[in-house]
Amino acid sequence: MASPPLLTQPTTKRTPPPVASSLPSKPSVPLATMTSARHIARREFAISMAAGVLSTSALLMLPAAVPLAALASSDEEYVRETTEVINKVRSTINMDRADPNVAAAVADLREASNTWVAKYRREKALLGRVSFRDMYSALNAVSGHYISFGPTAPIPAKRKARILEEMDTAEKALLRGR
């Protein structure tokens, strides 16, 4: 314990700061109490205003942040759209590189795959599915190839075999409801 001379006794009487001429000479409430009450009231006001602004802005921004078209509405829709993308991937990577429509098919595939990924990547219920995992991996491989090498570059046999295998696995998992 500290020695008694080092401890100071609390003062019971506070001396108010110098009063400006525009303020009343004797406030009815002690100045220290007024300042702390103002500070608390200001803080509560700021908190309530911030909460109101945040909740209002969150409500206004919700439709813009999450478009309704981007949300997955049902399991049947997921199965249907995933099957469509699987068919597009198969038809695109099996096209002859001399085919004049290959660039348009690749552009269509990239658009479809970007839409599929943007729509279903946020769905927590789908992230653990085998079909989603394999489909996402295959789309990543296909998109990465065409971005790196261009739309007319043929996919190497080893990569093509892996992509087709992932498509088969994803399709089987879709049929099983996985």
From TrEMBL:
Q: What biological-process GO terms show up in the record?
A: photosystem II assembly; photosystem II repair
**Polar residues composition-biased segments:** 1-14
Q: Please give the GO cellular component terms listed in this UniProt entry.
A: chloroplast thylakoid lumen; photosystem II
**Region (Disordered) spans which residues?**
1-30
Database matches in Pfam families: PSII_Pbs27
Q: Which UniProt keywords apply?
A: Membrane, Thylakoid
User: Highest lineage ranks of the organism?
Assistant: Eukaryota, Viridiplantae, Streptophyta, Embryophyta, Tracheophyta
Please state what the protein is called.
Photosystem II repair protein PSB27-H1, chloroplastic
Q: Which Gene3D superfamilies match?
A: Photosystem II Pbs27
Main localization category: membrane
* Location within or outside the cell: Membrane; Thylakoid
Q: Does the keyword Thylakoid apply?
A: yes
